[in-house]
Structure formats: structure tokens, C-alpha cells
Amino acid sequence: MQKKITILVGSLRRESIARKIAKNVIKLFPDGYEAKIYEIGDLPLYNADYDNIKETYAPLPESYTRFREQIKSSAGVLFVIPENNRLVPAVIKNAIDIGSKPNDDVAWTKTPTGIISHSVGAMGGYSSQKTLRLALSYFNMPITGQPEVFLGKSARYFDKDSEEINNTDTLKFLQKYINVFVELVEKNPKE
């Protein structure tokens, strides 16, 4: 049986660098793994009233239920995120909030997690990755340690009109990271 890896991309732009990186990383997973991007752009902003059955004006969106079930059924989650104003992108923060409820059934709990961040500047999304790690630390999620992936000046990894990473050393580094992530998933099976 294939192990499902959910990839959450922190940019809604169709041609975003984060999306291109994610598409390249999908190819690096070994046999027995099925890694796919799960679209989170249609998730309404989190509202606690959606989870309160007494609030009839705000029924639980079906997209919330689908997303929560996706995370629960995944062997692991990989975030591929840019940096927005030194923080995690809003679409990722919204997804984290949605998966964190209801309190007695948190979708994130014990889900092995990896993070690849990038920025068009030199720091490679360092601040966004660190804020994401802080948020995820609350959910008892096994998370990769070393190596960390901060892809600085990320536009240079793609030739004009290409979605393929053009740097062999970067691809080797990403393969090493995916190997570490897969090892984390193998050592932390969800119940």
C-alpha cells in the first residue's frame, strides 16, 4: 500500500516558485510513496463558529472536513513555503488553524512533517520556516531536524519558461532532505 504524503504549498499563484519546487520534490520520493499537492486556496478563513454546532448560521464547510480528513489519512505532510513579510504565508496559517480543531480531534497530531522554504532574497525563507516550526510545535508532530532547507535567491533555480530545477547540487540536496523526511515517516507511523 502506498504511503500518502500531502504537500501544502504556501503560495496560491499558479506559477509560483514554491509550486515549482514542490513539483520537483514529488519526483524525489521513493517507490511506495505517493506525494501530491493538496490545494488549500479554497479553504474559508478559519472561524471557530464553524465548529460550534450551536451556531446554526455558520455550518461547517465541506472543505474543512475534506482537508482535515486528508491530513489525518496522510503518512506525512511536507510544507513548501515562501516567505511573506518575514512570516509564514497566510494561506498556510489558515490551514494550520483549520487542522487544529476541534480540540478533541486535531488533524495534525503525530503527523510527521517536513518544511522546505524559499525566498527570492538571500535568506531562503528562514523567518517563515521558523514561525511555521513554532506553530507546529504545539501539535506533537515529529519534524525533520537537519538538514534544514532554505533556498535563497530561488528564482535562479529555474530557467525561463521551465519548471525543472536547473542546479544538480540543489537537486542532490533536496534528495538528501527527502530521504531524511521519508526516514522520519518510517520511524513515526500514524496509528
Structure description:
This protein has 191 residues and is an alpha/beta fold. It has a single domain (3-187), classed as Flavodoxin domain (Rossmann fold, 3-Layer(aba) Sandwich). Helix content is 32%, strand content 15%. The protein is built from 5 helices and 5 strands, in the order E-H-E-H-E-H-E-H-E-H. It has helices spanning 17-26, 62-72, 90-99, 126-136, 168-187, and strands spanning 3-9, 33-37, 76-82, 113-118, 149-151. The protein has a 5-stranded parallel β-sheet, sandwiched between helices.
Name of the top-level CATH class = Alpha Beta
- The CATH superfamily bears the name Flavodoxin domain
User: Which architecture does the CATH hierarchy give at level 2?
Assistant: 3-Layer(aba) Sandwich
Look up the CATH topology: Rossmann fold
**Percentage of residues assigned to helices:** 25-40%
The main sheet comes to: 5 strands, parallel
Distance between the termini: 15 Å
Protein name: NAD(P)H-dependent oxidoreductase
Domain NADPH-dependent FMN reductase-like: 4-154
InterPro entries: Flavoprotein-like_sf (IPR029039), FMN_Rdtase-like_dom (IPR005025), NAD(P)H-dep_reductase (IPR050712)
Organism: Peptostreptococcus canis
Compact description:
The chain has 191 residues and is an alpha/beta fold.
Which descriptors apply to this entry?
191 residues, Rossmann fold, 15% strand, globular, NAD(P)H-dependent oxidoreductase, FMN_Rdtase-like_dom, NAD(P)H-dep_reductase, Flavoprotein-like_sf
Helix and strand topology:
Elements: E1 3-9, H1 17-26, E2 33-37, H2 62-72, E3 76-82, H3 90-99, E4 113-118, H4 126-136, E5 149-151, H5 168-187
Parallel strand pairs: 1-2, 1-3, 3-4, 4-5
